[in-house]
Amino acid sequence: MEKLPAHKRNVFTSLRKQTHGNTDNPLKLMRDLDGHTSHIDKLQNMRILDGHGGCVNCLEWNKSGTILASGSDDLSIKLWDPFQGREIQKIQTGHIDNIFSVKFITGFNDCKLISGAMDGQVCYIDANKSGRITSFTCSQESNRQRVKRLCSHPISPFVFWSALEEGSIRQYDLREPHKCQGNNSPCKNVIVDLTASCGSLIEAKCLDVSPTNPSLLAVGCSDPFVRLYDLRKLSLGRLSTPQVYTETRNEQGCVRSYCPQHVANGYQRKNIVPTASRLISTTYVAFNSLGTELLAYMNPEHLYLYNINSPIPPLQYNTDTFKPSFITAKPLNNGFSKTPYLLCTPTSTIMHQSTGYPCFEKTVKTLKELGNKAYGTKQYMQAISFYNQALYHRPYTTVLYSNRAAGFLSRNWNGDAYACLRDCETALQLESNTKKCKLRRIKSLHELGWVEESYHFLKEFISQYPGVVAEIADLKHKIEAAVEKSANEQKGKEPKMSDAHCILRGFANQLNSYDYSQRFVGSKNVATDIKEANFIGYHGNYIVAGSDDGYVYIWDKSTSNLVLGFQGDASIVNCVQWNPNFSMLAVSGIDNTIKLCSVKQTENQAKNDMEALWKRAKQNQHQDNDLSIFFRNFDYDDLQGNDGFGEHSPVCRPS
User: Which residues contact 44 (CB under 8 A, 6 or more apart)?
Assistant: First the structure.
């Protein structure tokens, strides 16, 4: 029998081992139970913390998980007792605009905090004195001075970093005197200057430091590339004056970047000009507790998981041989891999390593049949979920990759065509003469706009199977039309692009960004640029994210399946923070309240309605225009004034 991971085992087995002294370390038991499947299934809204007078934009647990800090548009920070549901303290920060980030400083008995706000200030706060000790106002551009995120590391509690919309990452050291000089003599504390390589339009949105490697800094910006910096290779300086952009300019200090290949490749190809509605940014980045994985929440896209230790090269084709580039994934000792994107031994009849049974044992066969049934009724998300579960247990199975590829191609959400392509190439490595996979590869390449590749494989397919020409006549006509259009565009002038598009194309060409290992779909991230996603539990077995529809979404990381969703806000859920020591989730958004979700066992436990959740996830894929999002999500008290908005401004301004 294959050994299940700790978070999926029977919880009583772990408790029994502890009772009989079979557990080497009680701390290991606590970590195994943190984020256990039995806890996730029973998460419910348990308590509402009410006290803020505006949107709650940021949440932060202390190290022990006994105090929750919250920052709001009412310019205050509140400390809460999550177990009694009461306010411990209200802190007047001195900010004059919406607070976007709050963090505890380790080592001061939960008394010292830092906060960042829309006013460009970073405040160092002493809770015992109910106010700030000092503030930093380092931004040079008054119209782009918002501090979007702060981060620190427990090894160096006096040092912390901020991400500002001016395009900089600034470093602060509380042990050194600091005096903001203003525009005449700007502060020399810029550790990353994005404007030097990406132009004046770039904005820093989020950042995080690896918990196991304090020199590794991840930064998300107003583009789809997540950058990794080695702080040991960077030096402090002043924000430079952005020069005219050129594609030869290099990104200083960036040791690696990540981006979904269907996005990066779209900027690289000159026949694809992204529209304004498809400009993608990163609203949140987070390392897992081991520092081996990085989670990124893309706007207006999905959640992507990147591998830090073994980064995955993007799927690309050699222009001469049209051979795909892949990374070879070695199978784990227990017979299955946690990485769904693999290349493995060239056979689809793999014997289970511990039992010797063929890979199509009863459970996997049942999941395959359920997936086929759901696909037959056009329930593509359900079908993909069943195939995900089957592939988790038996990844070396051609037909499962082929079937899931068909599901991606038929569902056709953002990134599905590329996911289909990856599955097709994996299946073709297992069995090189799979006709269905070859046809689906051609279709996915056409959907992606990879004209040269789709045309090459189309000709190859027709030469191998000449009898199918009539069946694929429509596809053949579309691909040939795309080839002709591409040829005509190459003869004429290149499509005119904005400066932002030029910068994105240049950066995509400079760095061959690494690809994602897993993708989590179903939520919606369009309306705000502070929306969060996080790991659940010490082992990060589950992924949680906020959404524009007011729901909290949770995925099983091992299968990337959506497993739970519940109401977290009347409008938008922005903040989702898992307690570091107790099975408790803090949620906030446009409402003035904070919801605490915890495990609750009742006699009539409400069953999670997956059909309704899948339907909601499908609805989230339909993008609204900016105006409809604005009016739906931001409340106005009075619309009778001469300017159309009356004397009252929106309760929560969009960021």
Answer: 566, 597, 598, 599, 600, 606
Residue 290: CB partners within 8 Å, gap ≥ 6? 211, 212, 540
Sheet of 573-578, strands arranged across: 43-50, 593-599, 584-589, 573-578
Q: Is 320 left (phi over 0), alpha (psi -120 to 50) or beta?
A: alpha
Average pLDDT over residues 121-136: 80
| pLDDT of 120 over the 60 cut | yes
What stretches of 465-538 adopt beta strand conformation (E)?
A: 518-520, 533-536
Q: How much is the average pLDDT of 557-580? A: 94
Report the Cα 602 to chain-centroid distance in Å: 33
Query: What is the band of 355 on the pLDDT scale with cuts at 50, 70, 90?
Result: very low
**Lookup: tokens for 134:** 């000092």
Tokens 């003869």 locate to 491
Alpha-carbon distance of 595 to 569, in angstroms, equals 8
Q: How far apart are CA 151 and CA 168, in angstroms?
A: 14
- Give the burial string for 459-495 (b: 16+ CB within 10 Å, else e): eebeeeeeeeeeebeebbeebeebeeebeeeeeeeee
What is the H or E stretch that residue 261 is in? Answer: helix 261-268
* Whole-number Å distance between alpha carbons of 561 and 565: 12
Helices marked H in 276-415 — which ranges?
Answer: 362-376, 380-393, 398-411
Cα dihedral sign for 27, 29, 31, 33? negative
pLDDT higher than threshold 60 for residue 13: no
Instruction: Identify the band that residue 510 occupies on the pLDDT scale cut at 50, 70 and 90.
Output: low
The token duo for 78 is 């509140």
Confidence (pTM): 0.86
Distance CA 111, CA 121 (A): 20
At residue 541, what are phi and psi to the nearest 5 degrees?
-75, -20
- Neighbour tally for 51: CB within 10 Å: 17
Beta carbons within 8 Å of 391's beta carbon, 6+ residues apart: 340, 397, 400, 401, 404, 559
Nearest to 548 by CA among 568, 520, 518: 568
Whether residue 246 has pLDDT greater than 80: no
Q: What was the pLDDT predicted at 245?
A: 46
253-293 pLDDT per residue, tens:
788 999 999 988 876 665 444 444 457 899 999 999 999 99
Cα 128 to Cα 22, 83, 110, 131, 135, distances in angstroms: 44, 22, 10, 8, 17
Residue 630 has a pLDDT of 41
- Spatial distance between the Cα atoms of 172 and 123, rounded to a whole number of angstroms: 11
pLDDT tens digits along 299-323: 999 999 999 999 998 888 887 778 8
Q: Are 87 and 129 in contact (CB under 8 A)?
A: no
Q: Which two tokens stand for residue 186?
A: 């700007």
The arrangement of strands across the sheet holding 226-230 comes to 204-209, 216-221, 226-230, 254-258
Q: What is the DSSP string of 389-435?
A: HHHHH----HHHHHHHHHHHHHH--TTHHHHHHHHHHHHHHH-TT-H
Q: Please state, in angstroms and rounded to a whole number, the distance separating the CA atoms of residues 115 and 408.
A: 42
> E-strand spans in 194-242?
204-209, 216-221, 226-230
In sequence order, the 6+-apart residues with CB closer than 8 A to the CB of 97 are: 75, 117, 118, 119
226-230 vs 281-287, strand pairing mode: unpaired
